[in-house]
Amino acid sequence: MKDFWKRFARNKGAVIGLVILVAVIALSAAAPFLFPKSPWAMVQRPFIPPFTMDKFLLGTDPMGRDLASGLAHGASVSLLVGLVSTVVSLLIGIPIGALAGYFGGWVDDVLMRFTEFFQSVPSFALAVVLVAIFQPSITSIVIAIAIVSWPPVARLLRGEVMSLKSREFVEAAVLSGQTHATIIWRQILPNTLSPIIVLASMMVAAAILIESSLSFLGLGDRNVMSWGYIIGAGRTVIRQAWWVSFFPGAAILLTVLALNLIGEGLNDALNPRLSRRGK
Amino acid sequence: MHSIRAFRGVASEEGRMTEEPHRPVIRPEPVEGRPAPVVRIERLSIALPEGADRPFAVERVNFNLRPGELLCVVGESGSGKSMSANALMGLLPDTVRVAEGRILLEETDLLREPADKLYDVRGRRVAMIFQEPMSALNPLMKVSAQIEEVFEAHGLLTPKERKDKALQLLTEVGLPDPPRAADSYPFQLSGGQRQRVMIAMALALEPQVLIADEPTTALDVTTQAQILKLIARLQKERNMAVMFITHDFGVVAEIADYVTVMQLGRIVESGPADEVLYSPEHPYTKKLIAAIPKLRAGAAEKTASAPVLTVEDLTKTYHMGGGFFKRQRDVHAVKGVSFTLGRGETLGIVGESGSGKSSVGRCLVRLQDPTSGRVLLGDKDMAHLKGTELRAVRRRIQMIFQDPFSSLNPREKVGRIIADGPIAYGEDPKRALSRAAALMEMVGLDPRGVNRFPHEFSGGQRQRIGIARALALEPEIIVADEAVSALDVSIQAQVLDLLGTLKKDLNLSLIFITHDLRVAAQICDRVMVMQKGEVVEIGPGAAIFGAPKHAYTQSLIDAIPGREKEAAMA
C-alpha cells in the first residue's frame, strides 16, 4: 500500500488531480450546509456579475438564482451520476467480457457480436434516444450512460482474461479440479483488477461529460440542479453574462481533468512495469 | 526485463552463502603477449533504488576486455552481471545510478560522455546481442531491412550498398540460403536463425567490442553449440573483444579465455578460464561448479514394477489456420507415442523444442485433448473422459510447471494456492489450510509462509510452492514440465534433490520433461528421447547416455557445452 502510494505520488499530475477531486467531493458534501436554500430559488435580481456581491460570489443567472449554490449542488449530481453509471456499466461489462474471454468459441462470438451491436450505434445519440424514451430522470440517465459505456469494459476484460487464461497458474487451477466459476472468480478476476480500476476512473469522467451534455440539451432531471443544465440555461445569454456558462464549464473541465489525471496515476502505480520510465 | 529481475534479487535467499564472507580470489592478469585492453571498467558501482535488497547492483567491479579475447562473466540471477553490461552500453534503467567508477573505451569515459556522443559508440564500436532473439527483433520488418537500418541510423553507405552488405553479413553468420533469409520476417525463422540474424546486426558496423548477454539460454543444446562456435569463430576472425554473460559453466568451459565470477554484485573470483575451472579457489565458485549436474546416470537398475500409467499410440495434431481462403494446415506434434511408467519410477522425456515432449505432458494431464490414443491410469482412460469423471481421475496425476513466476497466482496467498485443490475436491477449508502449512514444511519452506504472497518468495522457493501444490492432492503421478529450467544451477540442484526425496518417501511416479540432458541423467531411471513428435529411443538412463543407439541421441549428447572439460573439472 505504501509502495502503491509512492508510485502514485511520483506522477505529479495525478496528485493534483486527486486534490481537485477531493475538493469537488468536499464541495458536494458541504453544499446543503453552505447553501441551505434550494439552488432553484430566486434570490436576487438576475445577471449580477461575479465578485461584485459578497453574498453571491459567482453572481446570478438569468432567473436570479445563485450560481455558486447551483455549482455546489450540481457537484453531487455529477459525481453521483458518474459513479453509479460506471458501477452499472462494470456490472454489465465484466461478466460479458469474462465469459467471452474465458470460454471462447461460440460463446465469445455471440457475446462479442452483441457487444458490437452497441458499439456500432453512436453512443451519445443512443443515450439521447434512451433518455428521451424513458423520461428524463436520474435513474434513466444513469441507465442510459451505463448502456452506452459498457462495451469498452467487456472488450478490455475479454482481452485480459484471454491472456490470463493461458498463464500457468490458471492451468494449475484446472488441474487441481477447480470449477470454471471458481477459476474465473478466484484466479482470473482478481488479476484483472488494475486495468479495470484505471478504466473505471476514466469512465467516471466520461459519464460526467455525457450527463452534462444531456442536461445541456434539456434532457436532464428536472428536479436536480446540474452543471450541464446551468450551461444550457446560460447559453442564450453568453454575450451578456459569460459567467453563467463559464463557471459550470470550468467545473466540468476541472473534474474531468482530475479524473483523467488520477486514471493515469493509477495506471502508473498499478502497472509499474508499463509506466513511463521514472525520472 | 533483465535488469528488473536483477535488482529484485531473485536468488538472494537460497543463493546466499552460508559460510562467512571469503576474500575474493583475483588472479593477476598476465600482461605479456596480450594486447592492451580496449575497454577498462574500473571500480564500477551502481546504486540500486532505496528499498532494494542490497544497496548496490554491482560494487567496485573491474573488467578488462582485450581484442581477440573472450571474457565470460558468470553468476546466478541477481548477481549484477547484466547490469555491468548494460552500464557499458549506456542502457541502465533510470531507477539506478552509477555511484562511482569509470568505463573507459580506449581513452574516453563512457559514463561522462554526453548522450549524443554515445549514439555513435553504440553499434559502431560496442555492439550487443540479447537473450531473446524474438523480442529483440522487430516482428514487422524483414530481416534485411533491420540490418540495413543499422547502417541507415549511422548514415552510412547508399541503399544499394546496404542491401549487399546485409546479404554478405547473413552469409557470414552461416544462415542457410541467405537471400531467402534476408527476405523473411523474424517469425519465419527458427530461434537459432534469429540469433544469427541478431549477431549479423551486431557485427554490421564492425564493432571492437561485442557484448553477449545470455545469447544461447533460450536455445536448444544443438543450436547453442552452433551459436557458440559461430561467436568464437567471428571473434577470432575479427579480433573483437567479447564480453559473454552466462550462468552456465558448461558454456564457460566451451568458449571462455578469461572468467569472472560474480556473486551479489561483487567479483568473487577471476582469472584465466582453465585456472578458474580446474582449480577454483573461492567457495562460491566451487559450489557453482559442483552444482552442475553430471552426465552420468545412476547405475542402480530398478526392478520393473507394475505400471501405473500406460500410454498407447498417443497422437496430437494441431489444426492451424483454415479460414475462407487458406487451406487448413496440420501440425503433427505427437505421432504415435507409447510407453509405460512404473510405480516409483522416474521417466525422463528429453528432446529439443518442437520435439513434442511438452505436448505429451500436456496430453497426459489433459490440459490438451489428444487426437487419438489411450492414456490408461489404472483402468481409466484419461484420454477420453469428460466432465465429472475426468475431474475425479485428474487428482491422481498432477503437474509442476516451468515458470515459477507465472505458475502462482500473484493475488492469492501461498497457503490458499496450495489448498485450492483440496478445497475444490470438497475438503474443509480450515483443514486444507493447515495441511498446506504441513506441505510447506515438507518441501523445505517455513510453514508460516502460508500467509505471504508469491512475490515475497524467490524463484527456487516458488518452485517449491509449486511442488507443494502438486502434492496437495496426493497424486500418484507428477508430470514436471521443465520444472528446473528457469532456476539457477545451485537452486536447480536443491530442487532436484527435493524431488528425489519426495518421490522416494511418497512412492511417487515422476515424468520429467526437460531439454537439459544433464538434469535428465541425474534424476531419471529411464529416459525417452523424442524428435519431431516421435520416440527415437527409450531405455535406462545409463544405457541412453552411456551408449546411445540412435544418431540423434548421440548428437544431443555431443552438443552439451563443456563436455570435454567435464572430466577435468570434476
CATH superfamily annotation of the largest domain in chain B: P-loop containing nucleotide triphosphate hydrolases
Q: Look at the helices and sheets of chain B and give the structural class.
A: alpha/beta
- Rg on CA atoms of chain B, Å: 25 Å
Note poorly predicted spans of chain A.
Answer: 274-279
Instruction: Find the biggest chain interface.
Output: A-B, 23 and 31 residues
Average pLDDT figure of chain A: 88
Total of DSSP H or I helical runs spanning 4+ residues of chain B: 23
Biggest sheet of chain B, open or closed, and with what strands and sense? 7 strands, mixed
Q: Strand-and-helix sequence of chain A, N→C?
A: HHHHHHHHHHH
Question: Tally of extended strands of chain A?
Answer: 0
* pLDDT averaged residue by residue of chain B: 83
Gross morphology of chain B: globular
Q: Identify the CATH class of chain A.
A: Mainly Alpha
Rg over CA atoms of chain A? 22 Å
CATH topology of the largest domain in chain B: Rossmann fold
Keywords (chain A): Cell membrane, Membrane, Peptide transport, Protein transport, Transmembrane, Transmembrane helix, Transport
Family (chain A): Belongs to the binding-protein-dependent transport system permease family.
Main location (chain A): membrane
Membrane topology (chain A): Multi-pass membrane protein
